[in-house]
Amino acid sequence: MKLEELEQAVPMDVRGTLSRFGGSRALVVRFLRKFPQDGAYSALAAAVERQDWPEVERSAHTLKGVAANLGLERVRTGSDALVQTVRRGETEAVSALFRGLQADYEAACGAIAALEE
């Protein structure tokens, strides 16, 4: 899969991401490939499991930033929804929101795994 195809497979702002990375496709691909190993998602999953709301907020905020820099729009918006929900104290909604984010995260990681250089 080419970078432009990733934009269709996983809603991604390829143009904005390329701009943030100085136009270097190779650099974008390199950082996208590192995304599945980033610890923010696993920290978030563990925090949701423990119902550790301050850690859910922190980890979701971190994941939101990483996803935003990489242009991974669904992961960014899903993470942001978790951050805002915890900040409002609506913790009963966290599990459902996390399941949606989990699906978007797994889709992004699957598409990233298929990326060509």
TrEMBL record:
Phosphoprotein as a keyword of this entry, yes or no, is yes
Q: Name one GO biological process term.
A: phosphorelay signal transduction system
Matching CDD domains, A to Z? HPT
Q: Which residues form the HPt domain?
A: 20-115
InterPro entries registered for this protein in UniProt: HPT_dom_sf, Sig_transdc_His_kin_Hpt_dom
Sites where Phosphohistidine occurs are at H61
UniProtKB keywords:
Phosphoprotein
Q: Does the keyword Kinase apply?
A: no
Matching entries from Pfam families are given as: Hpt
Q: What is this protein called?
A: Hpt domain-containing protein
Organism (species): Candidatus Flavonifractor intestinipullorum
